[in-house]
Design brief:
heterodimer, A: mainly beta, 7-stranded mixed beta sheet, 4-stranded antiparallel beta sheet, B: mainly beta, 5-stranded antiparallel beta sheet, 0% helix, globular
């Protein structure tokens, strides 16, 4: 089946550091990828839609200058948390559909801890 | 945009009994409704989905029902087993895109021995 590979799985870093998370579609081309954030015991909140070759679209309340998204190829999207602070600590997870209007396939997620 | 409400937030059932989780949605144009199971620290996994051209879909012990008129859909798990313990999320599409989905708040299901 379709596979989305996400790295790293776990990051611990100091406040003020920028952290890059990568998501790759391994056996299909993903023109769109979605980025979610999940705080402990809460639901997945959609942060942004990553579009290959164009700007990402962000959900209301998500700072685009804080969460930089790049989708430079059909198989790779990256999310960079810039100048991360403890309140950015969360589980970040990407997903991609194999085609338009098809179910999403999720990466394994990245647990980000900012000290 | 779409708004998805999910109930209950926590559900405990005796092993072997059935569990039912309910969701409502707001956008009458929505036509695709997936259910995901998430175990602690892991990614959500699609367990079943339904499109609006059918009212019910079943896969072994799992079934989903859809009432488009009332804008609600439900997950039914029969003969529950310990491995069914997890958090379950319903979802519905937003912006007329089946792939861009909004999740309910989740139901933590505990299967009691």
């Amino acid at each position: 089946g379709a596979v989305v590979s996400q790295h790293p799985s776990w990051v611990i870093c100091k406040s003020g550091t920028s952290v890059k998370i990568e998501c790759r579609s391994l056996d299909f081309q993903a023109t769109t990828m979605f980025w979610y954030r999940q705080f402990p015991k809460q639901s997945l909140m959609l942060m942004a839609t990553s579009n290959e070759g164009s700007k990402a679209t962000y959900e209301q309340g998500v700072e685009k200058d804080k969460f930089l998204i790049n989708h430079a190829s059909l198989t790779l999207s990256t999310l960079t948390v810039t100048s991360a602070h403890p309140e950015d600590s969360s589980f970040y997870i990407c997903s991609a559909p194999t085609a338009n209007n098809q179910p999403q396939h999720f990466g394994d997620g990245t647990r980000l801890s900012i000290l | 945009g779409e708004n998805v409400e999910q109930h209950p937030s926590t559900l405990s059932v005796q092993e072997g009994d059935s569990a039912v989780i309910k969701c409502t949605y707001s956008d009458s144009a929505s036509n695709y409704f997936p259910w995901y199971k998430q175990e602690l620290g892991k990614r959500p996994q699609l367990i079943i989905d339904i499109r609006s051209n059918v009212g019910e879909k079943k896969d072994q012990r799992i079934a989903v029902t859809l009432n488009k008129t009332a804008k609600h859909f439900s997950l039914h798990i029969t003969e529950t087993q310990p491995e069914d313990s997890a958090v379950y999320f319903c979802a519905a599409p937003t912006m007329n895109r089946d792939d861009k989905i909004i999740f309910g708040k989740g139901t933590r299901l505990h299967i009691l021995p």
